């Protein structure tokens, strides 16, 4: 990953700082730290995933959706991007759209977190009839 981020120019350090800020639930600070990285490294799935997580954490759902969709264009087998896209769509109350990526994420890697998200969306669709 260091090669992908240009380890010698400070990009890698900025990425790591942004990663720590997301882990500390400081998504806006993470996005500020990540901004120079996004300008230099435009198609690295790791950078796009981190940006998507920060966008999601700061309720910038359209940007999060775009970031996760771009990751999936680059790597359709990224189960976490599928899960995160599903959660992003769920947060936008687009429940029927959230189902396919969540189902795919569960099929690829049946992690409890993925299964729980799929169960939540499925139950809400059953109760509410699809979307709000």
TrEMBL record:
Database matches in Pfam families: TPR_16
Signal peptide: none
SMART domains, per the entry: TPR
The organism's taxonomic lineage, starting at the top: Bacteria, Bacillati, Actinomycetota, Actinomycetes, Pseudonocardiales
TPR repeats: 45-78
Keywords attached to this entry: TPR repeat
InterPro entries per the UniProt record, alphabetical: TPR-like_helical_dom_sf, TPR_rpt
UniProt name for this protein: Tetratricopeptide repeat protein
Species of the source: Labedaea rhizosphaerae
């Amino acid at each position: 990953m260091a090669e992908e981020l240009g380890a010698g120019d400070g990009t890698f350090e900025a990425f790591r700082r942004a990663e720590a800020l997301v882990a500390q639930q400081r998504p806006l600070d993470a996005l500020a730290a990540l901004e120079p990285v996004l300008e230099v490294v435009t198609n690295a799935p790791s950078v796009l995933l981190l940006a998507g997580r920060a966008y999601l954490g700061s309720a910038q759902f359209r940007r999060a959706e775009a970031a996760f969709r771009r990751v999936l264009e680059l790597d359709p087998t990224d189960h976490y991007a599928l899960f995160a896209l599903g959660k992003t769509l769920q947060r936008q109350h687009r429940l029927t759209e959230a189902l396919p990526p969540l189902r795919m994420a569960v099929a690829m890697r049946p992690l409890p977190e993925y299964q729980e998200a799929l169960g939540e969306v499925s139950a809400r669709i059953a109760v509410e009839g699809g979307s709000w």
